[in-house]
Write a structure and sequence with these properties.
With 284 residues, this protein is mainly alpha-helical. 74% of the residues lie in helices and 0% in strands. The termini are far apart.
Length: 284
Amino acid sequence: MANPVAAPRWRFREPNVLPGFRLALGFTLLYVSFILLIPLAALVARPWENGLDGFIATLLDERVLKALRLTFSVSFLAAAMNVVMGLVITWALVRYDFPGRGILDAMVDLPFALPTAVAGIALTSIYAPNGWVGGLFSPLGIKIAYTPIGIWIAMVFVGLPFIVRTVQPVLQDFDAEVEEAATMLGAKPLQRIRRVILPALWPAVITAFSLAFARAVGEYGSVIFIAGNMPYKTEIAPLLIVTKLEQFDYAGAASVGLAMLILSFTIILVVNIIQLLLSRRGLK
């Protein structure tokens, strides 16, 4: 005779033999809620003060569209550039021993320590038409500061450490025996890099790209000095949000912020999916 009250087949169990899982999970959820979820919920709720029509009208405004397009396109190009140059710098720091390597390694972290406003002032003074570098291009009719090129340079500056510091530990831990085996099998240097080293680095490279891209999208202090902040031309989305706040257009500012959140989340989600696929392929 079957038991009318069947015992539950599942019950909550701690996934580790170490004690304290429930307490740690509770603190984690509480901290994440106050630091991340509640502010994001407030951001999602604020744009609807003017209704759906007001939200759509804000996003379809030409000034908003151009600011979003400029911010995300230049951020993508800056992150892509940082991936290329960051790999070269990481390779030099890990694979070669040369005088001043420690100093160069420490200099990579300068964008982390330097206040963004100071970085913006320094970049503007260098790349302005009368600056050290900008003065060289000015006679050729090339303007760097107060153009999208200047914005790109500022985003490259702040994003480089994310590439180097993410890829560097992976390259340091790379098994040299695998590379030696490829050499014994007749692989040339470029073949070893393309077929042995890069496949092992791709997950870290993609993670580094997403970090550099996210930092560039949200960068404000170092960009506003060199951008020129001209509406429809060199105005970035974070500056447009500040402008709307100064005009007491809180719903409009939240609408632009929500659009940036959705776009950033979508791009980072796609990047994480690509990283997961590459990681699974590497385990096979």
